[in-house]
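User: Quick sanity check before I run a bigger batch. Here is a single chain. Can you write out its predicted 3D structure?
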Amino acid sequence: MRTERLVTAVQELSLARDWDTVMRIVRIAARQLTGADGATFVLRDKDKLLY
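Assistant: Done. Predicted structure follows.
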């Protein structure tokens, strides 16, 4: 089940064309794969971190 979900996430990410879509896919997949109640997306841009 987890392998299938991970493959699905990778396939969805290959079609993503904007950051909002990428973040949505990663957030949902991470929560489903770990059973977490939430997820935080952190983007590093040189010396800055965006949460």
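The mean pLDDT is 93.

User: Great, the batch can go ahead then.
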